[in-house]
Amino acid sequence: MDFYTFLWMTFAVFVTLATFSFLYKDNPFYKFAEHLVVGVSAGYFVIILWHNALVPNLFQKLADGDWYFIWLNSSQPWYIIPAILGVLMWTRFSKDYGWVSRWPMALYIGISTGIAIPLEMANRVNKQLYAMMADIDWSHFFGTNGFDLLDVNSGLSQVIIFVGAAAALIYFFFSKEHTGLFGKIATVGIWTLMIGFGASFGFTVMARISLFINRVQDVGDWSEAAWDSTNSNYGAGFQIVFWLMVAIVIGYIINELRQFTKTRSRAS
Amino acid sequence: MKRQLPFVLVFIFGLFMMFQYFVPHEISEWIYEFLLDWIVIIGIFALALGLWSLFRVSVDKIKMRKDNWGYSYITLAGLFVMVAFGFTHRVADAWGLYFIWILLSLLCLGSLMQLRAATNSRQKKMYFASALILLILSTLVAVFDDTWRFYFYTAEGLENSMFRAFFDYILLPILSTMFALLAFFIASAAYRAFRARNVLATLLLLAALLVMIRFNPWIQGDEAWASKASNWLMNVPNLAAQRAIVIGIGLGIVATALKVILGIERGYMGKG
Amino acid sequence: MGIFDKLMKLDRRWVFLLLAVVCVWSYVVPFDIPIRTEPESEAIYSFIDSLPPGDIVFIAIDYDPNNLAELHPMTYAVVEHCWRKELKVIFTALSQNGPGMADQAIRDISDSLLVDKVYNGVEFKGREIIRGKDYCFLGYKPYYALIILGMGQDFRLPFPTDYYGTPLDSVEMMKGVINYDQVACVIDLSGGSITDAWISYGQGRFNFPLALGLTGVMTAQYYPYLGSGQIFGIMGGLLGAAQYEEMADNPGRAKEGMRVQLFAHLVIIFFIVVGNIGYFVTRYRQKKQKEVS
Lengths: 268, 272, 293
What we know:
The complex is a heterotrimer of chains A (268), B (272) and C (293).
Chain A: H1 3-20, H2 28-59, H3 80-88, H4 102-132, H5 155-171, H6 180-226, H7 236-267
Chain B: H1 4-22, H2 26-64, H3 69-86, E1 88-90, H4 98-117, H5 121-144, E2 148-150, H6 161-192, H7 199-212, H8 217-220, H9 225-235, H10 237-261
Antiparallel strand pairs in B: 1-2
Helix pairs in contact in B: 2-3, 2-4, 3-4, 4-5, 9-10
Chain C: H1 3-8, H2 12-28, H3 39-49, E1 56-62, H4 68-84, E2 88-92, H5 98-113, E3 117-119, E4 122-124, E5 135-137, H6 144-153, E6 185-190, H7 194-206, E7 210-214, H8 216-219, H9 223-227, E8 233-236, H10 237-247, H11 253-292
Parallel strand pairs in C: 1-2, 1-6, 2-5, 6-7, 7-8
Antiparallel strand pairs in C: 3-4
Helix pairs in contact in C: 2-11, 3-10, 4-5, 4-10, 6-7, 10-11
């Protein structure tokens, strides 16, 4: 690793800690990081849209035409039409001509909803219903290899899936009051749903902790790089930057503690 | 024209796309491919609207001297620098005056912002002059410095090392840290909110606990009962619950899409 | 005020601090925890492992930095596995910051491939990964659902050029590769609704084998598709990534992270238990007070 990369890593650690400082309270470091990332990500998106979408999908198609003919002499002049429709979108901010933006919008909405209907019906509804109606393996009701209640493929599990899914669907049916037998089935449904939500929650805990672990790993890699003497570019500069960074963090903490004790003594 | 034509367009194109799925004919396939291609191009222009409004908000914040307006300079600088990196690439071994050009352009941008916010004519003149001088200087650097070049039409900018560094060491750590804050909020929520108030909440908590201990080697030992039980939980009751949700969502999407195509749901048109 | 009342009114920043200290401590102290693989992730590993050299795997890197913690390790493990097996890879990135994630992953994994390594007892010689020959990175386009449909017609329809601006027809590995028909499987690594589009608009319409790498938050929601056979495997969250690393014998950040997860989860469970004890004690006292008055 060269020193230049290490400096960049140090900056990454700085903004990481700046963002984490929000956990204590809102502060200028956090605001700096927050505003910086908004700008940088917008700039990044501009460039990606330009190089990855506008240039290959529009400009290069019209490239063999001339602008003073509005590209009508290119080999694919019809690409000027979506471009004009796209520009019409920009009338949205105008009070008088805002309605023009509805045409391209209507095109987009028409196409995307039209596509959605058959595909969503087939893949979310039909295929799940088919799977629900699968044959139950009566010969292996309590497990495919001997008695095993936790066997996923046993007939019993298939029955539970069918009953649970059907009951949960009934729970979602609000056109009839949930009383009597209907209400009892709906209760089974809500129980199933709660188990599902619980499983989701268990996974969510892991997901959220992962995000923090990743940041710890990045900071860990940085501090390792500062002390990595096998690195051919290794030198005193690495440690100077490391300790400078540590000093900034400790300085910030001490400053906060002093202010905290001050306000506390004033309050008492 | 203002209201009727959009509904007709939605209806025609929606219907066409629906039938295209069931009747794959050569002509319909040809139109389908065209529409897929075109609609993306239209969409790109729509996305530009969002970027423009971000720019406007930041500029207005500076002009009106709203709360924390100073930070808007950081936003604008980040935006500008990233765009500049994306359109340039180094051709020589060293960067030459590249960073001086970036700095001059940033100062020029800052002067223009100050010019917009200026209240008296003396300030206006001063900022106008400084913006003009900085613009001339940065143009001169851009013209005469041949260690780097602009690339608008080819994608060299995407491989600019500064463009990559800004993504890897600024965008990536800040965005991921912002989401990492959620780790702490879920810990706080676990402490304050997840109570076994009734049977349903208890059921939820027990399922969650089982999933949470499934990779813990100390609680479950060698038989891995928690791992096995949580695998069953995921593949049987959870699958049943999620299946009902998937079917529900699917029906919801189809119903909403039909309402849109038939012109019953018109919220997307806005007022007027 | 009793101890439980005090506990209930504890400043949440103490909770934050405890979690942070435990995570950092368990990161610093090195030890290994056993990773048990599950059928969901085994299916993906064995599918890729069984492909003959030269086959094409389509990897959709549809996540932003917000989800990189869980999905980046999956990318690293899966792509390294593919390239060591001399499979070719097509990448796309259909989320806003996805191209940067893919670009970074491709650079890092290419570096890692330069070194000789032994995985599961088999020695793999280091080799240089060549753009256009070993992989083709298609890049980003907005409106993922339409792009997924468009690629089913012809990759060249939404992507006339790759991410770096090379026309797709001049990319060596894309010769004769028209659409999903020439691809062995699609692996979607995603942290959002793009996954739904891959299921409904991709697999549903063009019927290719699809596997998912998901963030923990989403994992539970996609089991019905596994049950119905619409997808053939799921890697769920950091544990899923760690399982893949375990099977590929290529320990990385996910396996390292699972050790921290172990303690972090114990802390969370501790919080839930303490919170509930406090809740029941205060409820019991309130009930008693009511009875007295």
